[in-house]
Amino acid sequence: MTTDRPLPPGSTIGIIGGGQLGRMAAVAAARLGYRVHIFSPEPDSPAAQVAAVATVAEYTDRAALEAFAAGVDVVTFEFENIPAASVKLLSDRVPVRPSWKVLDVAQDRTHEKRFFNENGIATAPWRRVASAAELVAAVAEIGRPAVLKTTRLGYDGKGQIKIAEDTDLAAAWAEMAGSTGSQDCVCVLEGFIDFAGEVSVIVARGLDGVSAAFDPAWNLHTRHILDTTTIPAPIAPALIDEALSIAAHCAETLGLVGLLAVELFLTKDGRLLANEMAPRPHNSGHWTIDACITDQFEQFIRAVCGLPLGSPERHSDAEMKNLIGDDAESWLAILGDPGAKLHLYGKAEARAGRKMGHVTRLRPRRR
Ligand code: AMP
């Protein structure tokens, strides 16, 4: 279903997924006068805690999805791994933004890499791999080191194995097939990029086709999980422009309505290679809450409600640090630091590797 009219304040935005991205989006929606209905299998999810209504049900629960669709004016996602049939059911009843086509590209690493390459955007060399024999052939072509990744449901380094000089390929394949629990495991093998750094760009595109991007971010990962984001990225202005134009090109080509985060590797010889993209708010955009006129969550809500986009201009330079697992125990000390802005996600249990919150520190803008 489609409608081109801006959704008036007081309307209800349905958000699929109950994590911190949904939570911060729900807060931004509330600031603009909207109500939010969260759909997530998790009881007392971070997003449900701040929403007007919450449905706790599996993403495949037809009856729950139908009731959800009947109670909301638009549907969006803070999590893109939703079964196609569920998105179809929702799309037949209510506007879904971004569209199924965008989610389909972003859900599967082979679709994503094909999309990048077909649109002239370079990636690491890659091959689709669906058996131990195909892995051997792909490693012979791409060389070592390389990274084997599941095509679906991988994030924060989950579903990834590094293929080093001495890695036994049959064992690596068995581990991957075992961990996905699937007889028909499909992966991609990617060349390992010994990068100079990682850059991400978040771009919003409205119903009217107008887009607006935030300044590219410089990201440091620890154990595959984002640790720190720094703005501005310490890279040449020409690379900033190239990163922005890659993201704008992706949003335009996809016909995106919503938000798109594109993650890029910067190689040591100065090339940008696309790694992956996510059609939703992104961890590397959390700095925008404290450092921009319009932050990524408000921009997301504006785009999915058909409103004009806000200014993404940054008034300050910023560093955002994730609080992972036990890090969040220092909340009181962080609150005692006058330069720190603390954000906590309402998660009761601090498991290792779990994103519990983040802290942003601002500096006067230099350039
Ligand atoms: P991903 O799940 O693809 O975002 O990967 C998580 C992180 O693993 C990335 O942000 C990189 O730090 C690292 N990584 C993923 N793919 C590669 C690669 N082909 N070469 C080097 N590092 C990689």
* Beta-strand residue percentage: 25-35%
Helix content: 25-40%
Small molecules bound in the structure, each named once: adenosine monophosphate
Number of helices: 11
Q: Unreliable stretches, pLDDT < 50, 5 or more residues?
A: none
List the helices and strands in order: EHEEHEHHHEHEEHEEEEEHEEHHEHEE
Shape, principal axes of CA atoms: globular
The mean pLDDT is 96
Number of strands: 17
Cα end-to-end separation:
44 Å
Derived from helix and strand composition plus strand pairing, the structural class reads alpha+beta
Report the oligomer.
Answer: single chain
C-alpha Rg (nearest Å): 20 Å
How would you characterize the largest beta sheet?
9 strands, antiparallel
Describe this structure in words.
This protein has 367 residues and is an alpha+beta fold. Helices cover 29% and strands 28% of the residues. The strands form 3 sheets. Strands 9, 10, 11, 12, 13, 14, 15, 16 and 17 form a 9-stranded antiparallel beta sheet that branches. Strands 3-2-1-4 form a 4-stranded parallel beta sheet, with helices on both faces. It has a 4-stranded antiparallel beta sheet with strand order 5-8-6-7, sandwiched between helices. The chain is globular and about 60 Å long. The mean pLDDT is 96. Adenosine monophosphate binds next to β14.
Which helices and strands appear, and what pairs or packs with what?
Elements: E1 12-16, H1 20-31, E2 35-40, E3 53-56, H2 62-71, E4 74-77, H3 84-91, H4 100-107, H5 109-118, E5 126-129, H6 132-142, E6 146-150, E7 160-163, H7 169-180, E8 187-191, E9 197-205, E10 211-213, E11 217-222, E12 225-231, H8 237-254, E13 258-266, E14 272-278, H9 288-291, H10 296-304, E15 316-324, H11 331-335, E16 340-344, E17 355-364
Parallel strand pairs: 1-2, 1-4, 2-3
Antiparallel strand pairs: 5-8, 6-7, 6-8, 9-10, 9-11, 9-13, 11-12, 12-15, 13-14, 15-17, 16-17
The chain binds adenosine monophosphate.
Adenosine monophosphate is lined by residues 124, 147, 154-155, 157, 190, 192-193, 198, 221, 224, 263, 275-276.
